[in-house]
Amino acid sequence: MEPVKDFHHIENLVKAQTKSPRKVMVVGNCFVKWMRALKKAKDENLVEPILLGSEAAIRENADIHDIDIRGFDIRNTPGGSVTPAIEALQENKVDILVRGDFGVLDLLTALFRREAGFRIGKNIVTSISGHFVGALGRMLFVTDPMVIPAPDLKMKIALVENAVAYTHKLGFSKPRVALTSAVELIYPVMQHTIEGAVISKMNDRNQIKDCLVDGPLSMDCAVIESAAKEKGVTGWVAGRADILVQPNIETSYGMYRAFALYVKAPSGVIVVGGKVPVCVTSRADTVETNYNSLLMAMV
Amino acid sequence: MQPITSSSRIIDAAIELSKRRRKTVAVAAASDSAVLAAVSDAEKLGVCDALLFGNDSRIKEIAESDGIDISNLTIEHHDDPVEAAYNAVKAADKGRADVVMKGFVGTSQLLKMVLSKDFNLRGKNTMSHTAVLDIPGYHKLIGITDGGMVVKPDFETKIQMIENGVEVFRALGFDKPKVALSGAIDYVHENFPSTLLNKRIIEHFEAGQLKECEIAGPMTLEAATNRDIAGQRGIESPVGGDADLFVVDSIEECNIVSKVLILFIKAVFAGVIIGAKVPISLVSRTDSAQNKKASLSIACLVAEYLSQKGGE
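^ Those are the sequences you sent over. The predicted structure of the assembly is below.
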């Protein structure tokens, strides 16, 4: 399988793989932009949307915005509760969760409780955003914009492993992973440059497998081949990174927003490593970003 | 002065300024092609004059081979680049130059010279870098600090970074710049160390009654630069959706996020180091011609602002 080049490829992959519609439950009131994204996926027979809250209010909202939600499973429950999602999770009655009008940290906190059944063994839960960057003509995957605020060395290894496992599903048999920093040289005062180098060496020694890792790399050396060449940064990853593992959540989140809002790169963002994937876009995101996130979750 | 809201206006304002009081840039070790091109362009446009400190024959050789016209620039010959840089800083100290520009010398080496006891250029604050970005899609300029010097600011350093960044925007004509402290979320949460630090920073500024700026945060990039999103997130501060300065928590955040905007939507970028009595300008090979002109222009505007302020 060829690595996916853009979200259309991911969509085709999802269509080919989906035997029966996935059960997608929205936690908190469903934003209109999520209704539209779910409607689009439903029309392709990819999903079976489950909405929670006041049925009358949901139908009215759909009506006002002229969205045909026939076939949506609407469960008249007290709005704004995570309980139905946890129950569905425990009973294996949901395949994908979507964050509706519900605080992202509140949702993650509820899911992370041991008794919720979201966590699997010692697996670490992380998030990944995907962006199709037109100027590069390919996808970039960024981690972690939503879950791990300040990853230490151990956590960064988990970020690498989760992103590598995820991109394998998208046809990247040996994804190129860059540990990003402000510079590509190693400075003792810059902790992230040291950790980048360590993880890169662990990959050399085959302690981190099935991928090619290099770090530290600055943003331009990670993704722009000519910039890497000009700075004399060589190797398998420089200028060609598929995955950017970033120093902290502010950097990843800022990058996600810069791509989605200003570069207008088709984007999506999901939480991986739990029992089911979770789409964690916000109200500020477009229908397209929601739909792309759904596709990312379905692979 | 009318607040400046675009990169082309930065350059225009510097040209207007130079008609009244022409600024001089002292280039510290001028044997660097990108730097020579930048000062040559800026001089032709009427942004500034330049004194080139460095090896006379080497400078002429580079200018010749790269087709850079330096006929209107003055060369002060010094064989050794370190000695050349030292004399460039000395020129600023003696009032012969208003801006020091980094040439073929290490940044930290140059900054050490600026801060050295040989000169009276040290300011009360730490030195920090502020980049001013002209992002297609944002209705004004936005400053972002610090992607070049301060690796991971603590409480004191972050306050000084903010004060420095505010000076840049005051030099651009903003009486009370709007400062947003960055976050991956728009509220304070114990799991996010940067939000806890930012809360203390805001309390500090509020205790000082906020004479110089408006400040709010933590705030995500989208809430700081988009009024609708700020509204959705319940941000009432006038900073929401209208930020002038975005103060980040690490060098990586600043550097990497601004790179996305510069590489992929050609945001124009003008950077300056402040904290000393004169601004320090630096450009790199990868900067576009427009970035280089804007960087020198902003340095001249900051130099004017600092000299007016010093004379008050």
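The interface with chain A takes residues 135-138, 147-148, 151, 182-185, 189, 191-194, 220-222, 225-226, 229, 232, 248-257, 259-261, 263-265, 267, 285-286 of chain B (CB under 8 Å). Chain B has a mean pLDDT of 95.

Shout if you want it in another format.
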